[in-house]
Amino acid sequence: MNQMALCCSILLFLALSFLVSSLHASEGDADPIYKACLGECEISGCVGKICFQHCKFSSDGKPIDGPWYLQEPLYHKWKQWDCRADCQYHCMIAREEQREKRGDKPIKYHGKWPFQRVYGIQEPVAVAFSALSLAVQFHGWLSFFILLNYRLPLRHDKRTYYEYTGLWHVYAVLAMNFWFWSAIFHCRAVELTKKLDYSSAVALVGYSLILAILRVFNLRDEGSRVMVAAPLIAFVTTHILYLNFYKLDYGLNMKVCMAMGVAQILIWGVWAVVTCHPSRWKVWLFVVGGILLVFLGIYDFPPYKGFVDSNALWHAISIPLTYICWSFVQDDAELSTSTLLKKTN
What we know:
CATH topology of the largest domain: Rhopdopsin 7-helix transmembrane proteins
Number of helices: 11
CATH architecture of the largest domain: Up-down Bundle
Helix content: 55-70%
Distance between the termini: 36 Å
Number of strands: 2
GO molecular function, one term: hydrolase activity, acting on ester bonds
Signal peptide: 1-25
Family: Belongs to the PGAP3 family.
Transmembrane segments: 125-148, 168-186, 198-217, 226-246, 252-274, 281-299, 311-329
Membrane topology: Multi-pass membrane protein
Strand order of the largest sheet: 1-2
Structural class: mainly alpha
């Protein structure tokens, strides 16, 4: 067990060392052929044989048939695929086909890999995995709720014996909120969906760190909980305000989320070494999976066949980890309730 803890610590150290790496501008943005395609598309409204009705402009620069969002069916308007967005996508696909024929590797355009759209959805695989994670998260929380309120004994005032019930309920709400906005963001990345996705992600990771500290150190009184939670809540709130009202900085947000994520993985990992909890093996699975998520967040690679990249795999691995997490929480609630009942009898 100690050797396993040492290996995990080394992996976490290596992961942290990559957090300070700098981000580079997207190569595709400066590609002259791609830029020429964009300029031609916005004039002609076509990329090769593909043409867009909402790219037809009059001499004064106004769309001939009115605004682009009035030219599409209602069920298409949510995508916000205006002239420039459609030109960027099809020019990117056309340019990548040229590069692939020459044997060149894919490059990023406007900060994103060249994904293949499906029915207007930018990253269909990530969307599917986000929806599955949301479903598993809801199932785990519902099972936890039923266990506490209908299967385990309650106090005389109808409260549960498990002293972390409220904390896990809040976690469930934040987690389901994150996966919902993650699915929306990967459907269509615009400024609003980016802000909602980034904000919900840092809120969830920050709260998860608070929850890890409170549970691992068994902090039960309100004073101790406030002392731990207050500075972290202040930090997360300030960071969310910075993202929404000052600068939507993807690189900074990634580093903040990674740092807090690694911190909680380390806390749970050390606790799994020293505790005698009968379900500590589930914590080890969660820690190992968490380390894998960290590396997938760091080692970004282009999507295979235009669909599956490191982010999609990150979402896929999150599904079993969510199940393991709630399985441990239920075991923890049963053990805590049993222990308290023995003390009161």
